Amino acid sequence: MIGRAVQFIPASKAAGLREVDAPQSLVAHFGVDTPLKMDAGVSLGPLTIAYQTYGELNAGKSNAILVCHALTGDQHVANRHPITGKSGWWHTMVGPNRPIDTNRYFVIASNVVGGCMGTTGPASLNPATGRPYGLELPIVTIKDMVFAQAMLIDRLGIDMLFCIAGGSMGGMQVLQWVASFPDRVFAAMPIATAARHSSQNIAFHEVGRQAVMADPDWRQGRYLEEGVIPTKGLAVARMAAHITYLSDEALQNKFGRKLQDRSAPTFSFDANFEIENYLRHQGTSFVDRFDANSYLYVTRACDYFDLAADYGGSLAFAFKGAKTRFCVVSFNSDWLYPTHASRAIVHALNAGGASVSFVDIETDRGHDAFLLDTPEFISTSRGFLNAAAQARGIAPANNGTI
Q1: Residue 261, class by beta-carbon neighbours within 10 Å (0-12 exposed, 13-18 middle, 19+ buried)?
Q2: Which positions are annotated as active-site residues?
Q3: 95, 123, 284, 319: least surrounded by Cβ within 10 Å?
Q4: Residue 275 to residue 278: CA distance in whole angstroms
Q5: Which residues contact 125 (CB under 8 A, 6 or more apart)?
Q6: H helices of 54-94, where?
């Protein structure tokens, strides 16, 4: 069954902080007879997947693009977000006359399993207990996220996706899609990502998880039942993570050592510097839209990601014989998923005989460059998609824009 989303539990609603029901989402329900078989060796069902679509599916069903979101993203790619009121997180890329042109393509974006914007996650009600899953939800992997997406794509009646695109954790999903379903993906854009999570990135995520779990209001993951939210711990986790999304150059150019609304230090632990105030804002605004347990789940999913592990330790074997066209994109100032991580993907694709182009974009915007209006990234994406669409036989938009 597919219908408008009116009965899901985002973290903020479950905690009674506000009434939100994501009016601009669709939902697909999968019963206990069609569960998601998970990496952890268990099945998850019933399962709800919240998603959003933009544009129209053509008669041949050949123009569908799946957009995979990053760590704390969701299905609201190009529409105004129902909680924050802000523009969709990829409005620079998706929309009329954008590189992912909704006048030409049918765009699908779903909230990942383990998320908190409508898809089954730790804040969702466990039908067996009538209480939020909390830590009773099985551990989720990138592969689980992808197999759930495949269930949705099947439900929509689409055999082959024209393209899958995503950055960061979204890029991991792109890679997993091609490895798991090589005959269902015509083109792929893994952006600012890696085929395995590094020790450094696992360490960053562990700091964030420990910040959440050290908050007295975390309550061993049962905070929703007890009517509290570990806001302080989640805010600190977000602050620490947000630093990794930026570059030293960008921080220096934007903030330097400028003081916040004062001409001299206060000789206290107040936010004296602009960068301190900025990070505190990032943390406090984050807790209004994200669930703390979901943060534990999605960070753990990234940490477990090692695509080559299922292929005898050879990343090239993961892509052997793949007919998918690839455009791999990295950013030279991204130190979270550095250029060498993308080069490793490109080398494996070449070894596997795949068709691949690679662009390392020079920018001071760091990891978040793929979320911003970065001109070279926009033009690269448009060029790749136009060429792939021509090869796929997808007609130009009605307005003739290419």
Answers
A1: exposed
A2: 168, 334, 367
A3: 284
A4: 5
A5: 9, 131, 132, 133
A6: none
Helix (H/G/I), strand (E/B), else coil: 86:
coil
- Cα dihedral 166/169/173/179 (nearest 10): 110
Answer whether 2-197+307-392 and 201-299 agree in fold: no
Beta strands in 23-145, from DSSP E residues, in sequence order? 26-30, 36-37, 43-44, 47-54, 64-68, 94-95, 100-101, 106-110, 125-126, 131-132
Positive or negative, the CA dihedral 296, 194, 185, 100 is positive
Q: Is 394 exposed, middle or buried (0-12, 13-18, 19+ CB in 10 A)?
A: buried
pTM tops 0.85, yes or no: yes
Q: Using one digit for the tens of pLDDT, what is the confidence trace for 113-158?
A: 999 999 999 999 999 999 999 999 999 999 999 999 999 999 999 9
Residue 256 φ/ψ region, left for φ over 0, alpha for ψ in the -120 to 50 degree band, beta for the rest: left
Q: Is domain 2-197+307-392 annotated with CATH 3.40.50.1820? A: yes
- The predicted-structure confidence for 15-58, as pLDDT tens digits, reads as follows 332 223 444 689 999 999 999 999 999 999 999 999 999 999 99
CB-based contacts of 396, cutoff 8 Å, min separation 6? 104, 402
The burial class, CB within 10 Å (0-12 / 13-18 / 19+), for 114 is buried
For the chain, the structural domain boundaries read 2-197+307-392, 201-299
Could you say which DSSP state residue 306 is in? Answer: B
